[in-house]
Amino acid sequence: MLLLSRRSLLKHATLTGMALPLASVARPGRAAANDKLRLAGIGVGGMGGADLAALSSHPNVEVVALCDVDAGKLAAAAEKHAGAKQFTDFRRMFDEFAGAIDAVHVSTPDHTHAPAAMTALNHGKHVYCQKPLTHDVHESRQLRAAAAANPSLVTQMGTQIHSNTQYRTAVKLVQSGIIGKVREVCSWSGKTWGYDGPKPEPGAVPASLDWNLWLGTAADRPFCPGHYHPGNWRRWYDFGGGTMGDMGIHILDPVFSALQLGPPRSLLSNSSSPPADSFGMQNETRFTFPAGRFTTDGFVLTWFDGGKMPDTSAWPLDGADGTRLALPGQGSIFLGEKGVILLPHVAMPTLLPVKDFADAKIEAAPDGNHYHLFVDACLGGAPTTCGFDYAGPLTETVLLGTLANRFPGDEIRWQPAAMTIPNHDKADALLRRKYRTGFEVDNLS
Question: What's the predicted TM-score (pTM) here?
Answer without folding.
Answer: 0.92
